[in-house]
Amino acid sequence: MPAGGAAPAGDAAPAGDAAPAGGAAPAGDAAPGRAPARPGPGTSQRVVVTGGAGFLGSHLCEALVARGDSVVAVDDLSTGVVDNVAALDGTPGFELVVADVSQGLPVTGPVDAVLHFASPASPPDYLERPLETLAVGSEGTRHALTLAAEHGARFLLASTSEVYGDPTVHPQPETYWGNVNPVGPRSVYDEAKRFAEALTMAWRRAKGTDVGIVRIFNTYGPRLRPGDGRVVSNFLVQAIEGRPLTVYGDGSQTRSLCFVDDEVAGILALLDSGLTGPVNIGNPAELTVLELAHAVLALTGSSSPVVHEPLPVDDPTRRRPDISVARRELGWEPVVTLQEGLRRTAEFFSAGTPEGVGPRP
Ligand code: UDP
C-alpha cells in the first residue's frame, strides 16, 4: 500500500468533515467543520459559476436559474461554447462574462456563492493545454477563492476522481489519498486539482472562508462536445455515424458513469449543505469500457465494429466512487440508469448529426 493509503473499509467519513464529538478524526482531517447551510429554497442567491459555458457548468447554471438564483457564468470559451447557455440568454438574472479566470474574475455586484468549474476536463483537452490547465487549477482557483472571501460567499471547488490517480483502493472513499504520477502527462490535470484542493483547504484554515470540495466522477449527458474525446461521446457519435468504436487497450479498464442531472443534483446538495468535504459525487455502477461499447451498440442498433487502439499513458485501470458520505450527509444518490442516460445522450447527438441517425426506438 502506498504511503497515505486508504482508511479502513467502511470508514467513509470525508476528510475535512466534522468528526463525531469525542470520536477519532478520520485520516486527513485537519479542518473539521460545516458552515451553516445556505438559505433554503425560495431565497434567491447570486452565484458565480466559472466554466459556466462548459458541459457541467452550463447544466449547473440552468439548474440554479430554474430554482430562482441569479447566475454570472464566467468562461473563456476555450472548451466551453456559447451555444451551451444560449437557452439562458435573455433570462432575467443570467449573464455570461467572457474572461479567463486564470487572469482574474471581473465580477461586480453582490456574490453569495462561487462555483469554480473552469478547467479543461477531457483528457485530450487538458493534454493539449497543459499550461492552461495548471494555471486554471492554481491561479484560477486563487482568483475564485479571493472573490468568495471578499464577499463572505461560499466557495465550491470542482475537484475530480483523478485525484485518486490509478487507485490501489477500490472503490474509492474520500479518505483515500490516491496514487498519482506527478510527472506523467495526466499530472497537469490531476496535480492541478490536487493543488486546488490544498489551496481551498488552506484558505479555509487561514482565512475562515466557507468552502466545499466536490470530487466529480465520470459524468456524461447532453452537451458533451461530440469531439471532446471522452469515452461516452466518442462511442455514441461513432455508433451513430457508423464508424468503428475505438476501445483503448483491451477495454478491461472500468469507469462508473453518472448522468449529468444526477451529478448536478449532488453538487447543488453539497453547495446548500455548508459541508466542507471533500465529497465524492458519482454513480457507483461500474462497468468495463468494452461493456460500455457493447451497451452503446445495443442501444443505437449500430453495426459498427469495435477496434482497439493504444491505451493512453497512466490511464486508470479502475474507478468507482464510494458514495457513503453523500448518501449519509446529503441524502443524495444517483437515480438515472445507464440505459436511460445513454438514450437521452444519444438523442442529443443524433439531433446534431447531419445524417440524423437516431437511437433505436
Ligand atoms: N476510452 C476508450 N475509447 C475512447 C475514449 C476513451 O476506450 O474513444 C477509454 C479511456 O482509455 C478510459 C475510459 O475510456 O479508460 C474513460 O476515458 P475518458 O476519456 O472518458 O475519461 P477518463 O476517465 O479517462 O478521464
What does this protein look like?
By secondary structure, the chain is an alpha/beta fold. The chain has one domain (about 45-350): NAD(P)-binding Rossmann-like Domain (Rossmann fold), CATH 3.40.50.720. Helices cover about 35% and strands about 15% of the residues. It has nine helices and 13 strands. The protein has helices spanning about 55-65, 125-130, 130-150, 185-205, 230-240, 260-275, 290-300, 325-330, 340-350, and strands at about 45-50, 70-75, 95-100, 115, 155-160, 210-215, 220, 245-250, 255, 260, 280, 285-290, 305-310. The strands form four sheets. It has a seven-stranded parallel sheet, with helices on both faces. β1, α1 and β2 form a beta-alpha-beta unit. α5 (about 230-240) packs across α9. The chain is globular, with a radius of gyration of 20 Å. The N and C termini lie far apart (about 50 Å). The relative contact order is 0.15. The model is unreliable at about 1-30 and about 355-360 (pLDDT under 50). The structure holds uridine-5'-diphosphate (UDP). The site of uridine-5'-diphosphate has 16 residues, from α5 and β8.
According to CATH, the fold-level topology is Rossmann fold
Bound molecules: uridine-5'-diphosphate
The count of helical stretches stands at 9
- The CATH superfamily name is NAD(P)-binding Rossmann-like Domain
Give the rounded overall mean pLDDT. 89
Distance between the termini: 48 Å
Could you give the order of the helices and strands? Answer: EHEEEHHEHEEHEEEHEEHEHH
Largest sheet: 7 strands, parallel
**Class, according to the CATH hierarchy?**
Alpha Beta
CATH architecture verdict: 3-Layer(aba) Sandwich
Give the tally of structural domains.
Answer: 1
Name the poorly predicted regions: 1-32, 353-361
What percent of residues are in strands? 5-15%
